[in-house]
Amino acid sequence: MSAKVPIPFFKSLQEIYPSASAILREGQRWNALLARFQEHFGEAPTYVVRAPGRVNVLGEHIDYSLFPVLPAAIEQDIIFAFRPTRPAVGSNPTVRLENYDRKYSYPGCSFSLIPGQNGWDVGLDAGGGWDKYIRAALLECLDELFPVGKEDERQEAVGMNVLISGNIPPGSGLSSSAAMVVGSVIMFLVANNMAEDKTKADVVQLAINSEHRMGLRTGGMDQSASALALPNNLLHLSFYPSLLPSPLPLPGNLSLVITNSLAPHSLTESAPEEYNLRVIEILIATRLILHHWKLESQFSDNPRPWLREVLGAWVGEKGHMGWEKEGEVMEKALGDIEWMKRDGGWSREEMVKCSGMDGEVFKKSYLDFLEIRAEKFYLYERLHHTLTESLRVHKFVHLCQSISTSKPVPPSSDTPLPTVDDILIQLGKLFDASHASMRDTYDCTHPLVDSLQELCLESGAIGSRMTGGGWGGSVVSLVESSQVPEFLEKVRKGYEKYGDLEDEEWVEVGFATMPGHGAGVYVVEDGVRVVDGRAA
To answer: Does residue 267 surpass a pLDDT of 70?
Structure first.
């Protein structure tokens, strides 16, 4: 499977949503959105772009170290009904944004796309809510695809009227922000007649760069999952030596069940003490182990190599070392990091001393790379989580493949073939170990998330773990499909913050989901509605 494939255009909702119930539900939602667009803007939309949220099934906080992860697109999504508009002669293009969902109080807005000497201006700093993600995506697309000063070489950018509907709970750890950015990038490409010339890989890169503009140094998993996912499969997503998505079937008798802790958290606002700090800690840990292994000469032109790159250099990797070797190398590295342990963490002075770098160069390369606020750095803990979590992904993929008819992995000659039940137990243990590592080693969970994870296990989950960037958000559980209703009922009754929820609120907080399709475009024909997934 390659990421360099065209952006998909859909003709029916059956191509988008994986279940009959979702098709019926979403047909009604899409129709309502199209009708509201007509009412508000006085004309019908020409397109609907749909970008899903994602659940990270396994592999937390390791994508930015270039290790493989296992996300899946979920049924919940953001849909953008829009119509391109052309400005009057002598005027700048204008984007008019409106939000269909009345439960979100932030109003719509309008802004112009203004070229200037230093690039485009979309009023990014004026964005105070969900619109900031759209502004950032449009700004990235404009600067990349419509560079100021080269007007004679390309067409003029267009404006848009846009009506948005989303049912991904914000702050839930299900990447509503990535869906917003991915959808906005595709919307821009479609509006400017560029979609056919761009690939899914282009969308992913533009979306990653868009979030970097907002100060969050994401690794690319969220954007890739939203853009690249395939129905009924997890996405085994590798980043090294290049982006490589591969479908991974989840055992057919398992469901992914998501329960929101209702401890919402803004990663962008807290990034200097939390998310971005973790990125810097693992980068510094990588620098120290690079120096410990005497590999400086191999990275003289790379001031901030990622851990996966350094591991490859350590063992003389050419191209990609291969499946079995990768696991062996991670195990070997785990045995050679004990010297990094420091009670109370590392000081800045200690890190410089063990980095092999000049103090000012170290500061510029690492401490000033992203905005952070910390005096102590827990390098061993971050490195230990990254390596063990990567091994858990490695083992999870092997186990799923071992019971997949499409790509079986034979056991070694001296190992008996495990039963399916044995494999499910092992998958669950990997989930539980992942959560323990995030709680105790990477320090990125939340007391409410921890208590909900324990409740999910008590309620019958095979395994449960926090999913998403952390410090709040949701728990994802592996549950036997036949047990899902009973499981959700127990969790609803047992978690205190669910006590006051009405039924319509509960279905957005606790739900089973099937791995769904990645982002794409639906062309709206004049006078045509979407009904139960079909044109009518």
So the answer is: no
User: Alpha helix (H) ranges present in 54-164?
Assistant: 131-145
Whether pLDDT at 403 is above 90: no
Check whether 148 has a pLDDT greater than 60: yes
Average pLDDT of the residues of the chain: 91
Residue among 101, 197, 222, 432 flagged as catalytic: 222
**Angle at the Cα of 474 from the Cα atoms of 434 and 74, rounded to 5 degrees:** 100
Residue 244 CB contacts under 8 Å (≥ 6 apart), including other chains = 1, 2, 3, 237, 238
Mean pLDDT of 58-72: 95
**CB–CB of 173/275 below 8 Å?**
no
**For position 3, what pLDDT does the model report?**
77
Token couple for 469? 């960037």
Count of other CB atoms within 10 angstroms of residue 436: 15
Fold adopted by 9-250+517-535: Ribosomal Protein S5; domain 2 (3.30.230)
| CB within 8 Å of 278: residues ≥ 6 apart | 61, 382, 442, 444
Q: Which amino acid is at 426?
A: Q
Answer positive or negative: Cα dihedral of 425, 428, 434, 436.
Answer: negative
User: 3-class DSSP state for residue 427?
Assistant: helix
Quick one: which of 7, 133, 34, 88 has its CA closest to 530? 34
Phi, psi for 322 (deg, rounded to 5): 100, 165
Write the pLDDT tens digit of every residue in 290-301.
999 999 999 999
Catalytic status, residue 526: no
Q: Phi then psi for 527, rounded to 5 degrees? A: 75, 15
C-alpha neighbours within 13 Å on the C-beta side of residue 411: 10
User: Contact, 143 vs 135, CB < 8 A?
Assistant: no
Tell whether the model's pLDDT for residue 415 goes beyond 70.
Answer: no
Inter-residue contact 172 to 470 (CB < 8 Å): no
Residue 152: predicted pLDDT: 55
**Overall average pLDDT of the 393-418 stretch:** 71
Name residue 180's amino acid. M
Residue 57, SS3?
strand
Domain boundaries, the chain: 9-250+517-535, 275-380
| In contact, 184 and 133? CB cutoff 8 Å | yes
With CA atoms as reference, report the closest residue to 181 among 168, 197, 194, 196: 168
* pLDDT at residue 408 in the model: 46
Neighbouring residues of 205: CB distance < 8 A, sequence distance ≥ 6: none
Q: Which residues contact 435 (CB under 8 A, 6 or more apart)?
A: 445, 450, 453, 464, 465, 466
Q: How far apart are CA 77 and CA 30, in angstroms?
A: 12
CATH number of 275-380: 1.10.8.80, 3.30.1490.20, 1.20.1440.340, 3.30.300.30? Answer: 1.20.1440.340
